[in-house]
Design the sequence.
């Protein structure tokens, strides 16, 4: 069964890639007990907007197996958009006003590129915190990626993020630190990409009731969770959804910014990502860029040589964690349908209220 996009609003690149599979209507599936309804709130800046769609579509499609998933697309207001980016949102995304009176089994909230030192000063802060409050009451589980994870713990528990001396950039190995349904069946050591200038720390999280599930000696906390009202909040400081070339694209973007003098220092090469040959090629290009710091030098970037050695070494772990996430929501939905099927007609207590009193 293909991933079903609500309302037939299927972004072009996914429609082209999946042209051999029929695009079916969501209407006949959304009320089925075996169908999960998800919202993706994609807040990535325009250059990464469509890539992020494909990454999550592909990951959910692989993790769901034969399961049914209906997905609806949203984005926060207040994020700067080009005309092209706004046209894309207008064509395939729903207005946030549609969200407030909706309920989903799960929601995925992406981060975006920060522009202010304090998250509270970002133009989208007010609407993001409203989305977080909405998710606590109207989902069974919420995934928060990178900046969205930082915003969630700051808004919910006052846990601030700490600025790093250098960008945490690359693929880092983490160790599972406890038993949980989300890490069931995965290896003791997993690898996920990271790309961030800030971090939240384990001791501050655990003191506020968060459970750290995976942690890296080099990258710090990776995956951590906390139940917030009706929703299990699942936080990733890293990016399990990334494709094999995503870090390469970000590295090239940062190099272009260096060449254009939009940043003073040459970007650090992503750790644990390139093979030996690609590492040498990138080192040679850094020397070229340093001696010929002009925007035109970006055209010499050796992308082809780098791509040959790239592998998605985190894919199986990402699929496993997301499969466990989908199973968690399936179990929650099964409980709801089971209780609802035996509830006497005219009962005045809601299912959730009965469960909370038990």
Sequence:
């Amino acid at each position: 069964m293909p991933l079903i996009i609500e309302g037939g609003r299927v972004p072009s690149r996914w429609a082209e890639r999946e042209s051999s599979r029929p695009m079916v209507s969501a209407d006949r599936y959304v009320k089925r007990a075996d169908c999960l309804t998800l919202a993706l709130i994609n807040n990535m800046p325009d250059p990464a907007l469509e890539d992020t769609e494909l990454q999550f579509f592909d990951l959910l499609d692989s993790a769901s197996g034969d399961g049914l998933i209906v997905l609806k697309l949203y984005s926060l207001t207040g994020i700067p958009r080009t005309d092209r980016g706004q046209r894309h949102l207008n064509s395939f995304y729903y207005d946030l006003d549609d969200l407030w009176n909706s309920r989903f089994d799960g929601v995925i909230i992406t981060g975006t590129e920060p522009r202010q030192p304090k998250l509270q000063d970002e133009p989208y802060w007010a609407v993001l915190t409203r989305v977080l409050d909405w998710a606590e009451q109207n989902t069974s589980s919420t995934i928060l990626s990178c900046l969205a994870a930082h915003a969630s713990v700051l808004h919910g528990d006052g846990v601030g993020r700490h600025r790093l001396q250098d960008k945490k950039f690359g693929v880092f190995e983490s160790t599972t630190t406890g038993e949980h349904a989300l890490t069931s069946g995965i290896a003791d050591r997993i690898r996920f990409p990271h790309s961030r200038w800030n971090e939240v720390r384990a001791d501050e999280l655990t003191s506020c009731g968060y459970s750290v599930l995976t942690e890296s000696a080099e990258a710090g906390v990776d995956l951590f969770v906390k139940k917030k009202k009706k929703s299990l909040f699942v936080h990733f400081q890293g990016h399990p959804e990334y494709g094999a070339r995503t870090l390469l694209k970000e590295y090239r973007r940062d190099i272009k910014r260096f060449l254009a003098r939009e940043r003073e220092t040459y970007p650090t090469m992503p750790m644990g990502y390139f093979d030996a040959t690609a590492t040498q090629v990138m080192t040679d290009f850094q020397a070229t860029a340093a001696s010929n710091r002009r925007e035109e030098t970006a055209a010499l970037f050796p992308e082809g040589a780098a791509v040959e050695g790239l592998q998605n070494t985190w894919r199986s772990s990402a699929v496993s964690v997301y499969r466990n996430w989908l199973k968690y929501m399936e179990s929650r939905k099964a409980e709801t349908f089971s209780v609802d099927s035996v509830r006497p007609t005219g009962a005045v207590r809601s299912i959730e209220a009965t469960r909370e009193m038990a």
